[in-house]
Amino acid sequence: MGQSLFEKVWDAHSVRTLPSGQTQLFIGLHLIHEVTSPQAFQMMRELALEVAYPNRTFATVDHIVPTDVRTRPFADEMAEQMMQAIEENTEEFDIPLFDMHNQNQGIVHVIGPELGLTQPGMTVACGDSHTSTHGAFGAIAFGIGTSQVRDVLATQCLAMDPLKVRQVRVNGLLGKGVYAKDVILNIIRQLGVKGGVGYAYEFAGAAIENLTMEERMTVCNMAIEGGARAGYINPDDKTYEYLKGRKYAPQGDAFDRAVDWWKSMASDEDAHYDDIYDLDGSSLEPTVTWGITPGQSLYVTEQVPAPADLNEEDRDVANEAYTYMGLQPGQPIAGTPIDVAFIGSCTNSRISDLREAAKVVQGHKVSSKVKPLVVPGSREILKTAEAEGLHEIFEEAGFEWRGAGCSMCLAMNPDKLQGRQVCASSSNRNFKGRQGSPTGRTLLMSPAMVAAAAIAGEVVDVRTMM
Ligand code: SF4
């Protein structure tokens, strides 16, 4: 029987089995940012340790950077301290830093692939949950905690429990107005937010193969929201084409040799999976979350479910969600008024996301009741979008066009919801208080759906505007 990509990558990076039964796994690429690294560097200093592989370690700033005025020192003292810490730490430990003025700066999960740092067959680690994004390239990528950031800095290794592999096959082709975001929201809706615990998800099937590399990143980005420790897609010609010529990808003959190796790391046709789940991609519709977990979603044509329609174990969190969100069971989600529209985050801030949203926006004006933001995921995306005139389309419609960063995904910067505002958001988490206000409410959806909601002033089916 053949092996899955997960097994091949795991075996290729396994240093030894530890007495605990865990695997000591070598990490090919370590990405760091300003929020989860300061304590790790402090521990390194206290233990008089050096960074084992500075040439496999890259730093960017994203979570706390303001997306409008970027003058230093920042008004937020804690943000300024974090920025100073990453500047000092990367200098002391000789690690490249893509700071706010560097053309390579952006959200960590956007710039890794964009720069060709993320490659098939690799292990990737970063102190951020959505590191699973890098799996879109056939890498096995783990979000890690601060003490593990220290471990990887000091040893370039992680102690990891082996995972089972579930192949999630999305069959058929997606309909008009249905995007990668709708695919992953429906996978999480069906399998649950804890359905992937103990698993890596291998996304496969015609609908996945048909996605662009950017769309594949959206799917893998939210694997973690379904409980999976990692999510990946086997590399193919689209993957190699995307990587060719990128700054840190192999060049010339080395690229051709790399492609041969990358191909060998893809899952064998007769690979064993611990579980297989099939989803009909052709039946999916634009999807919106109605609750306080990414699993609480529905088609834009549906009504908020009644407790009786839910599994017993889902009813408590549903009751919590009705109260927090101010929605009633049986209420259509379409027509829900919004106050803020946010297009951004490591899930959906790439150039193809902005192009799709701009197509919806073009020739329209944003509702006067809505505060709309477009935040490109990297300075490179911002530059490309401006060269294409996308910023003008957004600005003419009434959107604010911002600098690259995490912005309102997490609101560790000045972009925050106020009070009970409702935000149509292309980000990945709709947890209580996620967007900066303890009572703020988030409706997750695709960037095109956010654009449509911004214009209508309420949740609307984007297919009616195409
Ligand atoms: S955009 Fe959001 S999820 Fe992604 S890295 Fe930034 S804060 Fe984390």
Keyword list:
31% helix, single chain, binds iron/sulfur cluster, globular, 466 residues, alpha/beta
Give a brief outline of the structure.
The chain has 466 residues and is of the alpha/beta class.
What does this structure look like?
- The chain is an alpha/beta fold.
- It is built from 15 helices and 19 strands.
- It has helices at 5-13, 38-46, 77-92, 108-114, 146-155, 180-191, 206-209, 213-221, 237-243, 253-265, 315-325, 351-361, 379-387, 390-397, 447-456, and strands spanning 14-17, 23-26, 29-32, 57-60, 97-98, 123-126, 140-143, 157-160, 164-171, 199-204, 230-232, 275-280, 287-289, 297-299, 340-343, 371-374, 400-401, 422-425, 441-444.
- Strands 5-4-3-6-7 form a five-stranded parallel beta sheet, sandwiched between helices.
- Helix 6 runs parallel beside helix 8, helix 12 packs across helix 14 and helix 12 packs parallel to helix 15.
- The longest helix is centred in the N-terminal third of the chain and has 16 residues, at 77-92.
- The chain is globular, with a radius of gyration of 21 Å.
- Residues 62-63, 107-109, 128, 130, 345-346, 406, 409-410, 427-428 line the site of iron/sulfur cluster.
Ligands in the model, by name, code or SMILES, are: iron/sulfur cluster
What is the radius of gyration computed over CA atoms, rounded to a whole number of angstroms? 21 Å
Distance between the termini: 47 Å
- Classify the helix fraction into a percent range: 25-40%
General form: globular
Which regions contain 5 or more consecutive residues with pLDDT less than 50?
A: none
Major beta sheet summary: 5 strands, parallel
Supply the number of helical segments: 15
Number of strands: 19
Strand content: 15-25%
- Order of strands in the sheet with the most strands? 5-4-3-6-7
User: Structural class, from secondary structure content?
Assistant: alpha/beta
Mean pLDDT: 98
